[in-house]
Amino acid sequence: MEESRELNAVIDVIMLAGTILLKSGSEIHRVEDTMIRIAHSQGIVDCNVLAMPAAIFFSIENTNISRMKRVTSSSYNIEKVCDVNQISRQLVGAD
């Protein structure tokens, strides 16, 4: 049960990072790459991410775990993009 809660919390962070990046004007490939890097840093290796201007999808292979987040508005905010990138770097460097 605790492992499930922890996994859900990790996925929440992954989705939040992707959402902030997408809403802040980041490129699609950066959104996907950052989400995958965060997942890998937390031990989730077999994952899929699909980002589009209007939505983000995240799933883990061979499980019934998937998430989708609709993004209805966006604006350019390079400071938020930099903040998320810094946190991502810290997580990946913590291996």
TrEMBL record:
UniProt keyword annotations, A-Z: Cell membrane, Membrane, Transmembrane, Transmembrane helix
Lineage: superkingdom: Bacteria
Locations listed in the record: Cell membrane
Threonine/serine exporter-like N-terminal domain segment(s): 12-92
Transmembrane segments: none
GO CC field: plasma membrane
Any one Gene Ontology molecular-function term assigned to this protein's record: transmembrane transporter activity
Pfam name, any one: ThrE
GO biological process: succinate transport
Topology versus the membrane: Multi-pass membrane protein
InterPro entries: ThrE-like_N, ThrE_Dicarb/AminoAcid_Exp
Similarity-based family: Belongs to the ThrE exporter (TC 2.A.79) family.
Name recorded for this polypeptide: Threonine/serine exporter-like N-terminal domain-containing protein
